[in-house]
């Protein structure tokens, strides 16, 4: 048996999975405690679990027993199974190859504003919807500085140059520039300075918006 074989750990995958479970349980315990505005000391007094142990549980540094979890469940008035919710949820990822974004028209879009949706994840544990777009403007594109919608938007300039309005202020955006703003205010490209212009637009908003 060579040295390389000896260095391999057959338990590594199992241990990694257990660590993920510990972290998921800890996050749920902390989230329920904070939601009810209970301090660690108060939870310790109610359950009889030491402050140090509660800290280890919330930080995912130990595997709590079922008895411990039942005590936490009773103290926080939540089902014991709720502590495993974060571990059981599937985490989505979307890989969009170059040139494969879905071209689409967004509500309120002006003529010759090319929108390519790069991915979309609907319901997820974060409670936030994120929509990344690659936007291309040409010499035939209309300007539209009064676009409004809910959420937060981040623009990252890739190519060209535009004067972009947000509310009462106009920003000169060049490659490498970023603009992060409340999308409820009127906004949009006001002057197309150097074309073609391309930028990433990432819009985020609550799932129930």
TrEMBL record:
InterPro entries xrefs: Cro/C1-type_HTH, Cupin_2, Lambda_DNA-bd_dom_sf, RmlC-like_jellyroll, RmlC_Cupin_sf, TransReg_Diox_bact_type
Sequence ranges assigned to domain HTH cro/C1-type in this UniProt record: 29-83
Xref: SMART domains: HTH_XRE
Keyword DNA-binding: yes
Keywords: DNA-binding
Pfam (any one): HTH_3
Superkingdom: Bacteria
Protein name: XRE family transcriptional regulator
Organism of this sequence: Octadecabacter dasysiphoniae
